[in-house]
Predict the 3D structure of the following.
Amino acid sequence: MATIGTLKYRLYQASNPMNTHADRKWYARAVQDRTVDFESFVTHMAEHNSPYSRGVIHGVLMDMLDCLQELVLDGKSVRMGELGLFSVGITSEGAEMEDQWNVSMLTGVHLNVRNTKAWSNAELRKKCRLSELTAYTKGTTENDASENSGGL
């Protein structure tokens, strides 16, 4: 399997939220040029010299997703090998006093994924090239990027 990927980015200008009087600066933001759906991901896996059929891979991944959701919603963290540690998180409004807080102040539930050594930020930086996405049309999936040389 390929270990080098192309990280696409776009430049944007923003002001410092802590100092609105400061000059705006330019930053880079990672962008994705398309979304690979579940079925395409299954096909991709099956085409990597896998001894398993698309159906077997699909079934195992569907069962994995069901079990992962069940466990994290039961308050457990699930370590998926080198992929990451999955857990559930919540956001809520604050209350002045502990006895004033109630469940109606809960504003969101979200999935947390913490990376591991193999997927650490430093390791990801080593495994990608940069490519500025200079032309972008909403809904277009072709790569209209101008490639920069080297890694990060």
